[in-house]
Amino acid sequence: MKSDLSALCLLLAAFCCLGNPADRTPNLAMIYCEDLGYADIAPFGAKDYATPNLDRMAAEGMKFTDFHTAAAVCSASRVALMTGCYPQRVGILGALGPNAKVGINENEVLLPEILKERGYATAIFGKWHLGDNPRFLPTRHGFDRYFGLPYSNDMWPNHPTAGDKYPPLPLVEGEKVVELMPDQTQLTTWYTERAVQFITDSKDRPFFLYLPHSMPHVPLFVSDKFKGKTERGLFGDVIAEIDWSVGQVLDTIKKHGLDDNTLVVFSSDNGPWLSYGNHAGSAGPLREGKGTTWDGGHLEPTLARWPGKIPAGSTCRELCGTIDILPTFAKLAGSQAPQDHIIDGRDIWPLMSGQPGAKTPHEAFYYYWAYGLEAVRSGPWKLHLPHEYNSLAGEGRDGQPGPYKKLKTDQALYNLADDVGEQKDVAAQNPQVIEQLLAIAEKARADLGDSLTGRAGANRRPAGQLK
Fold first, then answer.
1. What domains sit in the chain, N to C, each tagged with a CATH number?
2. Which of 68, 129, 217, 362 is catalytic?
3. Is 33 a catalytic residue?
4. What confidence tens digit (pLDDT) does each residue in 170-188 have?
């Protein structure tokens, strides 16, 4: 149940957060890309273009090489970030379209709501995708400011294969549509300018900035200042502009003397949409991409920077993910994750801060597609359960998607410690590991259900539903 704080409590929280920045709870920023592949930025292997500001984040902070999204698709992955829960628990699956009849439930406690109770200014500039009805918009769920697209940038009449399904694309400020069919070449710039202004306006109090870029989701757009600047073509130009945006955020934080009291995390919602060929990113050594439960869909290039608190130039190789952001940010703000309902994420500050011997807080991690449990993970072991998945049958080009083919995997076991590409099935050599992971799968089915085996799950909560 959401907490109703009195005006007095809010004033006291805000008062306690004023003063010397070093004495305040930390500022928190989450920069979140769309469809960014594991190998799409230089710290994780990109070669055809430079990402100097992301390189700076890695040099001054921490790389996470085992950081996972909770779903390989838009809305589901974003609800996990905002609630700290597997999307199956809160009933948001897939990618919600315009005029969706479902959205985030008002009884869910979102990260910005927790932070507002601690006196934080809160803002989102970018893509929301948890429902476009006013009831579901960010301003109804803890954000003071909102500017951006309510869903994916391809959900418009210019969609290459389904344009007749979509109305004109709205650009929303607060709860008002301020433009239809906006110039998408300006989206990254507009989001960044507002982020810079928000940091400036909020420099004397703690703030939470959520910057979920619409790029590099197709259709790709870039401003003139980055057009034609990389050898990779349009995709590389788009990543270069996102890198510029990161630099603008970091420079503004430094300009206002907030470096030593600001945590910035950079990640993405899911892996690359491979069917778009030269307009898609790369999962590098990982198998498959967006829309699958292979690690190409789930493993995200993630960085965290907080000078003096996160060890510079460090790497975390422990399993963690977007479900852990809410409890971690909440604790840093002097609060905690909701206690009256199940939260799947855990505090990963011991990992972020490089505490000696810190280990993953997760005994297991679940990989779902919709309500189907397709894989489970524990330690280095990942067990794929029998399921079908989409794999490329031919690449697209220049904004036109290529076809998929349907493939099926039988039960298969992979040791990710020496096989990140999930290529060598070692089930026959590890029967005890199989037994342990099947027991974990049964726990997941009892808790969250599994449509592949006809299980309902005991601990799901409903999405918000329009009448």
1. 26-352 (3.40.720.10), 365-465 (3.30.1120.10)
2. 129
3. no
4. 999 999 999 999 999 999 9
